[in-house]
Amino acid sequence: MRGLQWFNALSVGATPVEGLPDSLKVADGVVGEQAVRFIAVVTDPQNRFPRARNGEVGLLEGWGLAKAVDDAIEKGDKLPIIAIVDVPSQAYGRREETLGIHQALAAAADSYARARLAGHPVIALLVGKAMSGAFLAHGYQANRMIALRDPGVMVHAMGKASAARVTLRSVEELETLAASVPPMAYDIDSYASLGLLWKTLEVSQIEQPTADDVAQVSDCLLQAIEDIHSPDLKGRLGASNRAASSHVRQLLREQW
Amino acid sequence: MTDLLSKHSFVELGARQRAKSLLDAGTYRELIDPFQRVMSPWLSRQGVVPQADDGVVIAKGSIAGLPVVIAAIEGNFQGGSLGEVGGAKIAGALELAAEDNRNGVPTRAVLLLETGGVRLQEANLGLAAIADIHAAIVDLRQYQPVVGVVAGSVGCFGGMSIAAGLCSYLVVTREARLGLNGPQVIEQEAGLEEYDSRDRPFIWSLTGGEQRFNSGLADRYVADDVAQIQKTVSALLQQGLPEQQRSRQIDFYLARLTELDATPQIDPATVRDLYQGDRP
Predict the structure, then answer these.
(1) How large is the C-alpha radius of gyration of chain A?
(2) Rounded CA gap, A179 and B68, in Å?
(3) Cβ separation B266–A99 shorter than 8 A
(4) What share of chain A is helix, strand, coil (3-state, %, to 5)?
(5) Cβ contacts (< 8 Å) between B139 and chain A: which residues?
(6) What's the pTM?
């Protein structure tokens, strides 16, 4: 519900964008005096696809996100796009695989990346879970990523139970290991140590943001928009816990 | 019989041999080769033996005389999973190919995808690298085609299935599988009723190369044969950019999904009919 709460709090007075799946909340509003488009994926108990009723990013959500972003690109005014991220996972199901959920998520990633290349400032605001394929489709293509500091804000490649099964470990073993290996950890501070976040923020009531919380986040969003001067993702490189990513790029360039 | 004998399996080749087999003779040059020992900084502390190339081969050369960079994932190392180093090799190579194009050099890219997706031992760094790969494909695709090949036997899953969905063209074989979520994970998350990970014919019927091609989610369906795959990739590279990227056919797919009755569980034929109606 956090995604919806933050969407509602930030988009007061905004104009809803119609014609999208019910699991998407999209509206054109303002941050300060800056016009922006807000996009969030929310729960939809009536979703026609039963595996995508709890805020998961599924088929309709992937293609729908692509549509919401493409629509902003077509307007041609380089409107900043704010992706409010609270996505527990991609949808896991037979319908999803058979109908090509990978292609739906590709469409979303494609649109966000093209928006960035076209000069739209794209910001991801992490207020809840940012898991795996869902996050790749909604947020990970942003120029700048901002996360709220809270135990419920979590970036990861796979839920603990599945990760344990796939790596043939117990959940307890996985947790012990994860605590000592920053890229495996589930907490936001470990994630921040990888250099992928632009800022982290502490708010007083993450579940139901106060006026001060909204003001603080809005201020940070404006700073992020101001801070963007190139359409690439180079700003994510440079952390010591991600040194190999820079080293490999440097070697490739030398040997190219 | 003659046909069988004259065929050379692509699937049986390792990543390096696959890359070599696609490039014009004598043009293969590997970047960050295994002798440079750029290995995962994360695996050994978890008791996993790292590999000197981290399971990814980056090679430059030409195909039909066109400048090409190939990124080939070695499915035999850690299930083709992508960690920080292997992921950065692919992303970095694609970024340089896009930069080449901005400098007037028309470098194209071929991705040989045998991968389970993120390497869970490097979880968030694998995921970040895959986001970088997505970004770089979309960037390069503005100028030149990016051709993806899923030959098998690992298949292409997780975040890299999204990368496959971003490719200008996708080539698959009968051995290929393409899907977002691995069968085990779906079974874990959704239950045996939804997805039986041990029922191999069931899984191939839904996510196998033939089904993906027949439902329009892949562009070419080829035999497991080096010469045929080489010829197919070469032709696609020469063809240039597609009229419209599959990942941009938003209205088409949203309309199809809207008309689908999503209540019953779905079978392969339904998807073929749904997606192979009137193509744009």
Answers:
(1) 18
(2) 41
(3) yes
(4) 45, 20, 35
(5) 113, 117, 232
(6) 0.97
Question: With contacts defined as CB-CB under 8 Å, which chain B residues touch A49?
Answer: 262
Query: What CATH number is attached to the domain comprising A33?
Result: 3.90.226.10
B127/A135 touch (CB, cutoff 8 Å), yes or no? yes
CA distance B128 to A136: 9
Q: Does A183 touch chain B (CB under 8 A)?
A: yes
Mean pLDDT to the nearest integer, A185-204:
95
Residues of A in contact with B92 (CB under 8 A): 248-249, 252-253
B99, B173, B177: which is closest to B143 by C-alpha? Answer: B99
Name the phi and psi angles at B13, rounded to 5: -80, 150
What total of structural domains would you count in chain A?
1
DSSP string, B138-175: HHHTTTS-EEEEE-SSS-B-THHHHHHHHSSEEEE-TT
Flag whether A94 is in a domain: yes
Residue by residue, DSSP assigns A194-233 as TT--SEEE--S-SSS--HHHHHHHHHHHHHHHHH--SSSS
Q: What is the pLDDT of residues A195-230, one digit of tens each?
A: 999 999 999 999 999 999 999 999 999 999 999 999
- Of A164, A181, A180, A162, the closest CA to residue A172 belongs to A164
- Bridge partners of A30, per DSSP, are A35
Q: Classify strands B169-172 and A154-156 as parallel, antiparallel or unpaired.
A: unpaired
A163: nearest CA in chain B?
A: B120
Long-range contacts, stretch A248-254, CB < 8 angstroms, 24+ apart: A248/B32, A248/B38, A248/B85, A248/B88, A248/B89, A248/B92, A249/B88, A249/B91, A249/B92, A249/B95, A251/B31, A251/B32, A251/B36, A251/B38, A252/B31, A252/B32, A252/B58, A252/B89, A252/B92, A252/B93, A252/B96, A253/B92, A253/B96
State ipTM.
0.97
**Which residues of chain B fall below pLDDT 70?**
1-5, 277-280
Q: Which residues pair with B170 in a beta bridge?
A: B148
Task: Say if CB A87 and CB A45 are below 8 A apart.
Answer: no
A105 near B CB under 8 A: yes
The token pair at B211 is 């089904």
Q: Quote the domain boundaries for residue A202.
A: 2-231
Give the DSSP H or E segment for B257: helix B250-259
Contacts of A118 (CB under 8 A, 6+ apart): A73, A78, A231
Give the CATH number of domain B2-178+218-247; options: 3.30.360.20, 3.90.79.10, 1.10.10.10, 3.90.226.10: 3.90.226.10
Task: Classify the phi-psi angles of A78: left when phi > 0, otherwise alpha if psi is within -120 to 50, otherwise beta.
Answer: left
- CB-defined contacts A:B, below 8 A: 263
> pLDDT tens digits, residue range A26-37?
999 999 999 999
User: H-helix or E-strand containing A34?
Assistant: strand A34-41
| End-to-end Cα distance, chain A | 48
DSSP-derived letter for residue B59 is E
